[in-house]
From TrEMBL:
GO terms for molecular function: long-chain fatty acid-CoA ligase activity. The chain crosses the membrane at residues 33-53. It comes from Punica granatum (Pomegranate). Residues 133-550 form the AMP-dependent synthetase/ligase domain. Signal peptide: none annotated. The lineage of its organism: Eukaryota, Viridiplantae, Streptophyta, Embryophyta, Tracheophyta. Its cofactor is Mg(2+). It comes from the Eukaryota. GO terms for cellular component: endoplasmic reticulum; membrane. The keyword Transmembrane applies. Keywords: Membrane, Transmembrane, Transmembrane helix. This is Long chain acyl-CoA synthetase 8. InterPro entries: AMP-binding_CS (IPR020845), AMP-dep_synth/lig_dom (IPR000873), ANL_N_sf (IPR042099). The keyword Transmembrane helix applies. Pathway: Lipid metabolism; fatty acid metabolism.
């Protein structure tokens, strides 16, 4: 999950933001003979240190077929559990009870950590733009016991403030400790929480708050002015609670319209006037989570307390040796189910959670003042979550820096990488033991310090992770990746890679809280009778499947089906196949498949995933029109790579937009796309016949990608309608 998400407006090269130059062991020149000697030594080390054990790893059965109800298909359950699990332990049937029990069990252990803001300043770039830089101190911690007390105080304060416990509260904020405390406080009074992305646009924000009839809005103080601008459109808001987040200007003019209090004031009110808790039921709605949505207005998914504890119960069976000794780096949005589920897992086992942000994650992240440690350096986490787009950037950036160091350095890196890769894949065991120590010492340990140096396990979700990137992280960061598959509609709980599964491109067997069934999709050519593996639409059933869409019965009935046994199944729209060991692989998506003029089917997502491996591509959207026999693509190029090419070949330009319009630049990028498409064995009709280079990056703030960095196709198509039309002329 590292650095900033793809599409960040920060123009600083990724590896400089990650601090790679200062960490990579061969970053300083030691002369050609010193480097050559290291390479020659490295050639002999494997021979000297390896025992040359050869062997094959045995295939481990991870999932088995199971008989279930509902539409015919091929269903699988987790091998280790004959029945679905619903709770992590007896009595933890709701998030409120789980929170209380875990806080009492781990009362003296540190829980939520926040960095102290020492100072902030603004620097002006050469082009006149101003950037905020933060000087952050060490992490300050509160214990599980203190967190419980604060949540109870906030819960009481919420009631004393006048919040109607039969109405809903919303959290509209970036992630930090008070976000989590507010959530748990609401649960203590059986208040349903509406979660909204901090980057959500004005129309979607108004829609979300009005549709759910929110009476209390909890937000950052920086959001107060935004609320002031739209207050006339908000029909049910009565109270606004803002976090004490070092913002000096909290005068938004709202106090005459709504009751406006700081988070600290509400906690103090509750501490002085305690209210008995009102514990929710298992089937009560804990969260209405508004997805960022790739099309139209966002939909609110109703997540029950039972859904949340079931996912937590399932995931803790998968992560090895997960306990209170771990430290988790939290920097993704809590309004996304991936992060909310991850932090619920950490709560369940008593982990410490340190909060940060994508813009302050590393020593050279865009908002970190020079000389100040990034979040991972200060926290030194053992657990980290990530989305594939960020891991792809880490991989591409490291390889780019290695290439820039010259052929000898590249050879040294490649030798170590291949030896460690052979060990990870199990085809050769000599690269463990002494040889592993050797390669770690001269290459990989220094790279790992970019992420704090203590990462032992990574969780990846939100989109499919490429095999190349997964292997790269395994080797260079030295940690297994638990690649998960789930949706907001399944409370993130569907499938998860087990820690000892070294295969790539798969998302593991079903979690113990879920069944996964493949249902034939004849139109797309995917059936459960396919050989060598059954294929079809992925349908998830079990205790993690949510209660449907808020105020949208039609969509709920379309995608949620209750079988004759009473189990609810969610139809994901994703296409998967089951391997013989019971592990799931995502191979397509129904909505991404377009039939071209001559009858060929093209999977837009599959093509985009292949094209992303080009060093020139920061983001890409492939477009196919059924009235044509070819596809086209909109490409956001990597600024530094395209500008470097222009300098090398002598292409003159005044600014980056002008460079993107140069025919030579378009031809160079298209050549690269053709090469990676050929390497990925794409058919000719799958390779974009024409492309358009777009200079501006796609960010969640621009509304062109979701908070999970997935493409918003309809929004992109609407914004670049003219550009797409010209590509077909």
């Amino acid at each position: 999950m590292m650095g900033e998400p793809r599409g960040s407006s920060d123009a600083i090269p990724l590896l400089e933001r990650l601090g790679f130059d200062q960490y990579f062991p061969v970053g300083k020149s030691h002369g050609p003979y010193g480097t050559l000697g290291a390479v020659l030594l490295a050639l002999f080390i494997p021979v000297l240190l390896s025992s040359m054990f050869m062997g094959k790893k045995k295939t481990k059965q991870r999932g088995v077929p199971v008989q279930v109800g509902g539409e015919p298909g091929y269903a699988v359950r987790n091998m280790r559990f004959s029945e679905l699990i619903e709770v992590p332990w007896k009595g933890a049937t709701t998030m409120a009870s789980l929170f209380e029990q875990s806080c009492r069990k781990h009362s003296q252990q540190k829980f939520l950590g926040t960095r102290k803001l020492i100072s902030k300043e603004f620097v002006t770039a050469s082009d006149g733009r101003k950037f905020e830089k933060l000087h952050l101190g060490d992490y300050n911690w509160i214990t599980y016991g203190e967190t419980f007390d604060r949540a109870c105080n906030f819960a009481s304060g919420l009631v004393r403030l006048g919040h109607n416990v039969d109405s809903r509260a919303a959290i509209f904020s970036d992630s930090h400790a008070e976000w989590f405390i507010a959530l748990q406080g609401c649960f203590r009074q059986n208040v349903t929480v509406v979660t909204i992305y901090a980057s959500l646009g004005e129309d979607a924000l108004v829609h979300s708050l009005n549709e759910t009839q929110v009476s209390t809005l909890i937000c950052e103080s920086k959001q107060l002015k935004k609320l002031g601008a739209i207050q006339s459109k908000l029909t049910t808001i009565q109270n606004v609670i803002y976090f004490d987040d070092n913002e000096t200007d909290t005068d938004s003019g709202l106090s005459g319209i709504w009751t406006v209090k700081s988070f600290t004031e509400v906690e103090r009110l509750g501490k002085e006037n305690p209210v008995p808790p009102s514990i929710p039921s298992k089937n009560g709605i804990a969260v209405i989570m508004y997805t960022s949505g790739s099309t139209g207005l966002p939909k609110g998914v109703m997540i029950t307390h039972g859904n949340m504890v079931a996912t937590a119960a399932g995931v803790i069976t998968v992560i090895p040796k997960l306990d209170s000794n771990d430290i988790y780096m939290a920097y993704l949005p809590l309004a996304h189910i991936f992060e909310l589920a991850a932090e619920s897992v950490m709560l369940t086992v008593g982990c410490a959670i340190g909060y940060g942000s994508a813009l302050t994650l590393t020593d050279t992240s865009s908002k970190i003042k020079k000389g100040t440690q990034g979040d991972v350096s200060a926290l030194k986490p053992s657990l980290l979550t990530a989305v594939p787009a960020i891991l792809d950037r880490v991989r591409d950036g490291v390889l780019k820096k290695v290439k820039e160091k010259g052929s000898l350095v590249k050879s040294l890196f490649n030798i170590g990488y291949k030896r460690r890769l052979a060990a990870v894949e199990g085809s050769f065991f000599g690269a463990w033991g002494l040889e592993k120590m050797f390669w770690d010492c001269i290459v990989f340990n220094k790279i790992r310090t970019v992420l704090g140096g203590n990462i032992r396990f990574m969780l990846c979700g939100g989109a499919p992770l490429s095999g190349e990137t997964q292997r790269f992280i395994n080797v260079c960061i030295g940690a297994p990746i638990g690649q998960g598959y789930g949706l907001t509609e399944t409370c993130a709980g569907a499938a998860f890679t087990e820690w000892d599964d070294t295969s790539v491109g798969r998302v593991g067997p079903p979690l113990p809280c879920s069944y996964i069934k493949l249902v034939s999709w004849e139109q797309g050519g995917y059936t459960v009778s396919d050989k060598p593996m059954p294929r079809g639409e992925i349908v998830v059933g079990g205790s993690s499947v949510t209660a449907g869409y808020f105020n949208n019965d039609a969509k709920t009935k379309e995608l949620y089906k209750v079988d004759e046994r009473g189990m609810c199944w969610f139809y994901t729209g994703d296409i998967g196949q089951f391997h013989p060991d019971g592990c799931l692989e995502i191979i397509d998506r129904k909505k991404d498949i377009v039939k071209l003029q001559h009858g060929e089917y093209i999977s837009l997502g599959k093509v985009e995933a292949a094209l992303m491996s080009s060093g020139y591509v920061d983001n890409v959207m492939v477009h196919a029109d059924p009235f044509y026999n070819y596809c086209v693509a909109l490409v956001v190029p990597v600024h530094q790579m395209l500008e470097k090419w222009a300098r090398d070949v002598g292409v003159k330009y005044n600014d980056f937009p002008e460079l993107c319009n140069k025919p030579e630049a378009v031809a160079e990028v298209q050549k690269s796309l053709s090469e990676v498409a050929r390497a990925a064995k794409l058919d000719k009709f799958e390779v974009p016949a024409k492309i358009r280079l777009l200079p501006e990056q796609w960010t969640p703030e621009s509304g062109l990608v979701t908070a999970a960095l997935k493409l918003k196709r309809e929004q992109i198509k609407a914004k670049f309608k003219d550009e797409l039309q010209k590509l077909y002329e």
